[in-house]
Structure prediction request, 278 residues.
Amino acid sequence: MMASYIANSSAKFRFHGIASHAAASPQRGRSALDGVEAMNNMVNMMREHVPQETRIHYIITNGGKAPNVVPEFAEVYYYVRHPNRDEVKDAFARVVKAAEGAALGTGTTMDYEIIGGTHELLLNETLARALQTNLERVGGVNYTPQEVAIGKQIQASFGFPAPPIEEAAKVQPFAVTDGGGSSDVGDVSFAVPTVGLTAATWIPGTPAHSWQAVACSGQEIGTKGMVVAAKTMTLTAIDLFTDPVLLEKATAEFKQDVGSYVYKPLLGDRKPALNYRD
Prediction:
């Protein structure tokens, strides 16, 4: 299965108001949190009027310090995603307009900092099919009876039906699908022919970004999937070193797909943060 990452742009929107006592003198305050909430409301209404593949997520990273104080500062962190970088740019510009309108309507001021962004993954079918061949040689992941028992306990915590655990041993047939996440590997794919794979480092059905994913990754269940991926990638690298026709075909496909596009990264307004949450 060949899946693409989608393009992404992220930013923190910071609203500045006037602090006051929320009960004794609310008329003197201008709530920065009102600005954040007004922005979020407008963006949520915007969802009806963007391409359906668009994804917009946010969290309020600072909403004030105490309920009895009108917040003079508030911050909201946004991600905007789409399978195409140009659609991301368009949607992000509209999010900025919502922030500007929210500040105007709440009597606050707003500034924003672009944290970063990534291109979509440029798929290379030539490399993907070579990788698929090697994955089929390596095979899937087989669990011991003890790992199966642990896996079923983990699946029972999902709250929804999960695929059979035996699915991890099966190599899925080759197919091209749309991905849901974003990665800077997408930017790499506009510089050189790029390929990757997904291996079963979690019990089938495990949601990403969950404690169940952490539990699987921290034991032999996760290690087995990692080894499958490592073997598959190594075999494919050997193919590229020993088969000049494969290399030439992958390069030709890459050049055709990039075409006349001149790569320009969707960089942020600052150096990358050492702490992801900063």
In short: The chain has two domains: 2-118, 125-258. The mean pLDDT is 93. The radius of gyration is 23 Å.
